[in-house]
């Protein structure tokens, strides 16, 4: 992936495994079949983010016009997310919002490990088809290899947004959950013999979006990433 020791690490740090692990999904073609009362739909992923909002860690201070707007956005999003969590629990047996962060972390680690190892076919269970296509293209364009290690979470992964939309006609729903993941990672650039030329420890904060169709979706998959909100 890397043409020189210095430029390789720079390229790696800017790669999908470092601070910019993922990119937001865009429009996608349908693949999975869902039978409805009127027509059979073939859908694999939504193709876009249902709601790019990310709740801040702290409640905004309403001491200015901007602050009051942030408070309003925060409360409206919290109310909608709480409502959607309740609906999702009703339709998805066993779903628990307070435990989803750990499941999301496991999917995140598996996907990044497969990406680093250059195994695109192994990533399919963990990402949407649009995401897989994007990551495959990135693999083709890297002129070398590297090794990625997950050193653990700095903070417990947590949900910062949740949206659940359901069609009243055919009972098909789709959920997207944004999870904040702050972790420690090690990225090493490898030479032709597999020896590490150089390595660097990273501590990125990422907002990863997970998606699942209800009731037919088999598992949660990564659909994209939201850029870190400006402080």
TrEMBL record:
<comment type="similarity">
    <text>Belongs to the mitochondrion-specific ribosomal protein mL45 family.</text>
</comment>
<dbReference type="InterPro" id="IPR032710">
    <property type="entry name" value="NTF2-like_dom_sf"/>
</dbReference>
<feature type="domain" description="Tim44-like">
    <location>
        <begin position="81"/>
        <end position="227"/>
    </location>
</feature>
<keyword id="KW-0809">Transit peptide</keyword>
<keyword id="KW-0689">Ribosomal protein</keyword>
<keyword id="KW-0687">Ribonucleoprotein</keyword>
<dbReference type="InterPro" id="IPR007379">
    <property type="entry name" value="Tim44-like_dom"/>
</dbReference>
<dbReference type="GO" id="GO:0032979">
    <property type="term" value="P:protein insertion into mitochondrial inner membrane from matrix"/>
</dbReference>
<keyword id="KW-0496">Mitochondrion</keyword>
<dbReference type="GO" id="GO:0005840">
    <property type="term" value="C:ribosome"/>
</dbReference>
<dbReference type="InterPro" id="IPR024621">
    <property type="entry name" value="Mba1"/>
</dbReference>
<dbReference type="GO" id="GO:1990904">
    <property type="term" value="C:ribonucleoprotein complex"/>
</dbReference>
<dbReference type="InterPro" id="IPR051975">
    <property type="entry name" value="mtLSU_mL45"/>
</dbReference>
<protein>
    <recommendedName>
        <fullName>Large ribosomal subunit protein mL45</fullName>
    </recommendedName>
</protein>
<dbReference type="Pfam" id="PF07961">
    <property type="entry name" value="MBA1"/>
</dbReference>
<dbReference type="GO" id="GO:0005743">
    <property type="term" value="C:mitochondrial inner membrane"/>
</dbReference>
């Amino acid at each position: 992936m890397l043409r020189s020791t210095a430029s390789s690490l720079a390229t790696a740090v800017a790669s999908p495994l470092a601070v910019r692990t993922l990119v937001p999904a865009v429009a996608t073609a349908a693949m999975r079949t869902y039978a409805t009362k009127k027509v059979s739909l073939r859908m694999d992923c939504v193709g876009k983010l249902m709601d790019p909002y990310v709740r801040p860690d702290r409640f905004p201070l309403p001491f200015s016009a901007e602050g009051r707007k942030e408070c309003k956005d925060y409360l409206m999003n919290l109310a909608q997310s709480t409502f959607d969590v309740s609906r999702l629990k009703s339709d998805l047996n066993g779903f628990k919002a307070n435990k989803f962060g750990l499941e999301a972390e496991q999917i995140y680690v598996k996907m990044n490990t497969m990406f680093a190892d250059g195994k695109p076919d192994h990533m399919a269970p963990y990402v949407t088809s649009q995401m897989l296509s994007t990551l495959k293209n990135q693999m083709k364009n890297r002129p070398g290899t590297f090794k990625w290690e997950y050193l653990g979470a700095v903070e417990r992964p947590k949900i910062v947004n949740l949206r659940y939309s359901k069609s009243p006609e055919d009972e098909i729903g789709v959920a997207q959950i944004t999870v904040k993941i702050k972790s420690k990672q090690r990225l090493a650039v490898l030479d032709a013999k597999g020896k590490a030329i150089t390595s660097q420890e990273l501590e990125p904060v990422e907002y990863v979006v997970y998606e699942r169709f209800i009731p037919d979706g088999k598992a949660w998959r990564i659909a994209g990433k939201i850029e870190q909100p400006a402080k």
